[in-house]
Structure formats: C-alpha cells, structure tokens
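Weekend entry, working from home. Most of the wet-lab plans are on hold until the incubator is repaired, so I used the time to fold the two sequences that have been sitting in the queue since the last round of cloning. Logging both here for the record. First:
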Amino acid sequence: MTSKWLAWMPQSEPAKPTELAAFNLCGHAVEFERDGARHFLVADEADAQRLIELARPPRGEIWTVAEVDLIAAVPDQAARDEIAQWKRMFNGILRPDLFHKPHFRKETKRR
C-alpha cells in the first residue's frame, strides 16, 4: 500500500512575501521608557501639540523626529544624555543652531 502523501505535489507555488510599507508616524505617538523616564515619539510639532492637548504630557517628554535627528548628530553619549536631561527639565524644544554650523564641531580660533 502506498501513501497518498508521499506522492503529494503542491498545486501552486508558495506565496511570495510582500514588501512591508514604511511606518508612517504622522497622527500617531509612540510611548517608550528609557532609564525609568517616559518619552513619546511623534512625527512633527503639530503632532506634539495634539498629544499635549489630548494626554497632557510635558513637552520635555515629547520628541519629534527632527529632535531625534538633531540629538543623534551629537557624537558623545554623555552630551546626548545631558541634552535630554535639560530638555526634560525645562520642557524644552530642540532646534538646529542656524548661526554656528556645522553642529558640534571643534571650536576654531577666532581671527
């Protein structure tokens, strides 16, 4: 007696995995915890203001994608931690320094 399973052949090819769409943060907030402190990640300043209106977290706990990009440019972890501490302490907003580009360069001698 022969088993019908030994001679089984698939009728079609297996489904190919589809590409996942990029995650769109607009209109959403991601809450996370780092070193025992609560933080929120939002797409932009409008989403930050919307989150403040709905959930009332302090602005210092909310990080926009632009702020994360700015702090990621800091090469020193201790400096990043201090910036995050100041942002939280003063409910601050990180913005690029338009007068002293490039960011976090070594000081040069004045002429």
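Second, folded right after the first finished:
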Amino acid sequence: MILYASNISTGGGKILLDEVISSSYFGKLEVIYLDTRYSPPTNATLSNTKIVYVKPKLIHRIWSQIMLYQSSRENPNSTVVCFGNLPPLFKLSSKTIVYLQNAFILPGIASPKDNIKTFSRILFEKLWFKIFIHNATEIWVQTKWMKNVLEENIIKPVLLKPIIPLIKYKNIPLTESGELKKSIDFISITGAYRHKNLIQLLEAILESNIVDKKFVIVTDFVNCKINNMAKEIRKRNIQLDLRIHVERNEIYKLLSHSKCMIITSSIESFCLPLHESMHFNLDLIAPHLPFILEYKTPDITIDPLSKESIKVALIQYIEPQKKLHSEDRKLKNGITR
C-alpha cells in the first residue's frame, strides 16, 4: 500500500490520518508521503515503511507527484491511496483510490468565503479534482450524501468507506453514589470557519441569557470577533468556557462530562463531533441535514444560520415545557454562502 497524504497536517484530516496510520486501516504501508509539518502517532509501527516528507509548497508537491509516479512503477501490484482529496497528477501503474474528505471539493458546492487564501486554495483543488479525476480508479467517501453527489456528476465507481477513529477513553466520571457525573450542560466541538456558524452560536448563547448552565466550546482558532463575543457573554454571568487547540484525550474527557452536543455546521463531509457525541451518549441539537440524519436524528433541530433558531433550541432543551417557535429555512445537502 502506498499512502499519499502530503497535504494533511491539521484538523479533521489529521485525526483521520492518525487513525489510518496507527490502525493499519489500509493494510501494510510500504510508502507514505507526508507533509513536513505532520508527525505520525507515537503508537504507529513504521519501521519497515519508507516515509517521504514533502514541504508545503506547490513546487515540492508537484515533485512529490513525480516521485509517486515512480513509486507506483516500482510497486505495480500495490494500491495507491490519495488521502488528501486530490487525484494524482499522472496516471499510475497501480490501482488508485482517491479518498475525498472535503465536501467543498464536490461539484456544485460553492467554495468557502472565509478569506481569499482559503477561497483560492479550494478553487484550485476543485479545478485539480475536475481535471485529473480520470487518473483515479475509484473514489471513496464517508457519507451517502457525498456519494450521491459524486455519482450524479462523475463517471467513476464511488464507494462508501467511513473512517471512524477509535475512542479509547474510559475514564468515565462518577459521583460518590456511583451515578454518571455531568457537569457540562452544552458542548460544541467546532471551528471558526464561516460554515461552522460559531458566531451564530455565540450570539444565541448571549441572547438566551441562560446563566445557570455551563457551555463549553472547543475550536481550532479564534478571531477578534469571537474573543470579543466571548468576553461579552461572560460579562452577562453566562458560564462559557472557550477552549482552543485541545488534545483528543482532553476532548473525550469533556464529552464524558457533557449532557448535550450542539452542532451548528451547515456542511460537513463526515462530522466527527457527531460520532464522538454518539459514543458518549449525548443528547443532540443539530441541523436537519444529510450528514447528521445519516447517523442520528437530532433531539432538537435547528437552522444553523439562524441565531434565533439556536437560541430557541437551547431554551427548549432546558425548559421543554416552553412552546417557542422560530422560522426554519429549508435545507438540502448543506448551506454555502
């Protein structure tokens, strides 16, 4: 097996790559192409694996494609897995699988408009995918809705192959009487990208004025607006714990203490927090969207673009007898703006 993952170093892609390498998900790894910023998990057995590190520059990644072509010629019976969403630049001698884990690369899905750098990168990757997908033997995806979109637009076999990282955390908190201790009322494992709708969540928490419940938000980064909103929420005596760059084991600890997961994303390829919340048996506030409904029906449904809808859901969760309403928009596969 030849694993090509030269453009993965952070986020959900890194979590899945860690799982693939440590669990031998694709079998014995003969060659791995990795980003120089990525460090393989310490429990991985790679003593007999050739590792090629690629610098995160376009010229180095083009050169790595030439090296990948050579690796394929030297190992024609091996399977090549392009794990970073993009098909190879050249037609390879080996069976070639493209593992697509970024929903924004799908045909018909608009590129995110967080900033010009992200927008340009996704446009480039969408174009690369469209031009070179003929070099792939088949495409693997994590959810049925992505499979359906691809099958409508691309003449290639598309297989459903979700990778769910194994959760090994077992330190479940108990009270002195032996009951499950749940000190966090609401938790959201999210990001500051626009499609995650973190601003709407913070606005909903602020306007809900729920002062006797604890909120925990875990994100990959924050900006000035998010920081200022968090400060304003705390001024209202609302219990908000905003955490950045949290290790997986610490996230599992937080989840084990939590009652309800809030998901406000409007588009996801898989939505790892959903599966983590299911593992810890949390209640769920989430959108009525395919990437959610494929695995679980939310206890309370929200419109992720509407702070009013999220606020109503928070209040209804803690006071289910209240009859509150908010206007929900009709959502399909996802919402991009």
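Plan for Monday: verify the second prediction. The chain is about 35% helix and 20% strand.
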